[in-house]
Amino acid sequence: MPIPQYIKASAGLTRSAQYAGEIDPASLERLSSELVQPGSTLSAELGLERDAKGSWLRGRVEGGLWLTCQRCLNAFEWPVDVDVELRLVQSEAEEARVLEEADPFLVEDDKLPLVEIVENEVLLALPMMPRCSECEAAFAERADAPAKEAEPEPETAQKKPNPFAQLLKK
């Protein structure tokens, strides 16, 4: 069963509604432009709740997306595992006030766009420079390798005076 496109936030909060379902990333306009091939799905579990601090949309998005490795240019499946925790606010003033303690989401006209929220959270989690596991391992190996020591200068080489030496003196 798919996640609803939109829900009425007040009704969902009143009954602490839970939503679970599959989302086809190819159906998400902004996310689909990042995909190299279709065939992946996202599984989302979202719930509305209230506590002493306010109203929340909490949940998790899991699955895999086919991206292009920016190093070897091969397609690879990038695992998606995103926690969603958004404080639902009713005004821009409230949004500014809670910004320090939580990620706010401004609910307009009591309409909560669940699928859009999932797309936003996945887009924020995407790597800037996707790399497949083989290229990531090669990159990490090179980063961990000790730097080659610079070859010592031959003692016979004459040292030239630094033309900026006068600027360094006080």
Textual characterization of the structure:
By secondary structure, the chain is α+β, with helices and mostly antiparallel strands. Helix content is 26%, strand content 32%. It is built from six helices and seven strands. Strands 2-3-4-5-6 form a five-stranded mixed sheet. It has a two-stranded antiparallel ribbon with strand order 1-7.
Write the layout of secondary structure elements.
Elements: E1 7-8, H1 9-14, E2 18-23, H2 29-32, E3 42-51, E4 54-68, E5 75-89, H3 92-98, E6 103-106, E7 111-112, H4 114-125, H5 133-144, H6 165-168
Parallel strand pairs: 5-6
Antiparallel strand pairs: 1-7, 2-3, 3-4, 4-5
Please estimate the helix content: 25-40%
pLDDT averaged over residues: 88
In terms of structural class, how would the helical and strand content be classed? alpha+beta
Number of helices: 6
**What is the number of strand segments?**
7
Strand order of the largest sheet: 2-3-4-5-6
Can you tell me the residue ranges where pLDDT is under 50 for at least 5 consecutive residues?
Answer: none
Strand content: 25-35%
Query: Major sheet: size, sense and barrel closure?
Result: 5 strands, mixed
Distance N terminus to C terminus?
Answer: 74 Å
The coarse overall form would be flat
Alpha-carbon Rg, integer? 25 Å
Helix-strand sequence: EHEHEEEHEEHHH
